[in-house]
Write a structure and sequence with these properties.
α8 runs antiparallel to α9 and α10 crosses α12. 38% of the residues lie in helices and 24% in strands. The protein starts with 6 loop residues before the first helix and ends in a 7-residue tail after the last helix. A five-stranded mixed sheet has the order 5-13-12-6-11. Strands 1-2-3-4 form a four-stranded antiparallel sheet. It is of the alpha+beta class. It is globular. It contains twelve helices and 16 strands. The structure holds adenosine-5'-triphosphate. The site of adenosine-5'-triphosphate has 13 residues, from β6.
Length: 380
């Protein structure tokens, strides 16, 4: 397929310079996906006002799905609100799952943050939307939401309202321009079309940092992540999460310590310090927070070392629910292409769906720990 022949039209539609687009393609920053029945381009890097993860389906008509932009993180809530969120804004729950954009071609199609068609999520979201007329009446729109639940291949966190699989909308955009509808319009559309939506905590102003901090800590104590604060026109967005949820990330990352980048851990340690400061923790309270942080680091690492010393492998186990075993096997192959090292452990065929138990492997953590246990030196 001659991709170059599509570039002038894409440049025109996305209002970017044709030569620069061609150069990005030559440099390998625009990739071709052939894993869906319609081939598609995906933007690997955010360049020239086009967000990372932007997709162009190369069917009879070009169909766009703009990438979901980065949401900036507040470290010190009081300061960030004053600086970045003037006037009224809404606080809504930040769910801890994976970002999925849904567009409609001749069927529902779900895209990951990087712009890869996810057959597994597509299958589930199709089922979820089968009675909704949203795409019948809004073909040019794109739903953006978080997938949570234990039965998912990327991030397994259960919520009481969605133990196995849930998709909660937090944004509705024009798929070609990426422009969001207002918060009010999004809420109207999600109600009208019966779409599940993230939880809304109401309207706040920059003076409410203490109240928001208390809300985030409460969410943290319930095992939830935090909030995203949005100006009513959706133009400005700020995320802020609880130390309790940061500890969850750390526990997970230190379990697979050599597979996670050091930046991942380091950034989270600093977040914890700013939150402890902003809460005014001192004395016993600060010591308690410090102990929790220490536990999140040391305990998973010691458990990992112990398990490997016993000759076992440290892995992550999860389940997926698929229409049949063939779909499941193809999907695990798809995960391998994405760089996830996974193997199928068990297949059980139910009446409605087939449940596949998958094991995810973390070779660096296992190999390096084993090497140290056998006496290898480390580099310092
Ligand atoms: P980013 O590049 O946006 O910083 P990230 O991969 O670092 O993304 P996070 O730090 O988890 O991710 O925060 C942003 C993500 O939070 C969004 O991409 C979205 O998937 C998710 N999210 C969950 N709930 C909401 C919500 N209510 N509003 C917006 N985003 C939400």
């Amino acid at each position: 397929m001659e991709i170059e022949t599509y570039l002038p039209q894409i440049a025109k539609d996305l209002k970017v310079d044709k030569e620069r687009l061609e150069e990005e393609y030559r440099k390998g920053n625009i990739l071709v996906g052939t894993d869906y029945k319609i081939p598609y381009l995906r933007f690997k890097k955010g360049e020239h006002d086009i967000e990372e993860g932007t997709v162009v389906f190369l069917g009879k008509q070009l169909v766009y799905a703009r990438g979901f932009p980065k949401i900036r993180r507040a470290m010190f809530l009081k300061g960030a609100l004053k600086k970045h969120l003037e006037g009224k804004f809404k606080a809504e729950e930040k769910l801890d799952g994976y970002n999925i954009r849904t567009v409609y071609l001749d069927e529902v199609v779900c895209l990951t943050r990087k712009g890869i068609v996810c057959p597994y999520t597509t299958e589930h979201v199709k089922e979820l939307l089968k009675n909704s007329k949203f795409f019948e009446e809004h073909r040019d729109m794109m739903l953006c939401g978080e997938v949570v639940g234990l039965r998912n291949p990327y991030q397994t966190k259960s919520y009481p309202e969605a133990k196995e699989f849930g998709y909660f909308i937090f944004d509705i955009k024009d798929r070609k321009t990426g422009r969001s509808v207002s918060v009010e319009e999004r809420d109207r559309l999600t109600v009208k079309y019966g779409l599940p939506c993230v939880r809304n905590f109401g309207v706040f102003t920059a003076k409410d940092s203490e109240r928001l901090l208390a809300l985030v800590r409460k969410l943290g104590s319930e095992g939830r992540e935090g909030v995203v604060l949005k100006s009513l026109d959706m133009e400005r967005q700020v995320k802020y999460t609880s130390n309790q949820s940061t500890n969850n990330d750390l526990r997970y990352a230190f379990k697979f310590v050599f597979d996670y980048g050091q930046q991942f851990m380091f950034r989270r340690l600093i977040r914890e310090a700013f939150q402890a400061y902003e809460l005014g923790l001192a004395g016993k309270e600060l010591e308690k927070e410090a102990a929790e942080l220490g536990k999140s680091i040391l305990i998973p690492m010691v458990e990992t070392i112990k398990r490997i010393a016993e000759g076992k492998e440290v892995t992550e186990d999860f389940e997926i629910a698929v229409p049949d075993a063939t779909f499941g096997k193809a999907f695990v192959e798809h995960l391998k292409h994405l760089g996830v090292k996974a193997t199928i452990e068990h297949v059980s065929k139910g009446k409605k769906e087939t449940i596949i138990k998958v094991k995810r492997h973390y070779p660096s953590t296992n190999d390096k720990t084993r090497a140290y246990l056998s006496g290898e030196f480390c580099s310092d």
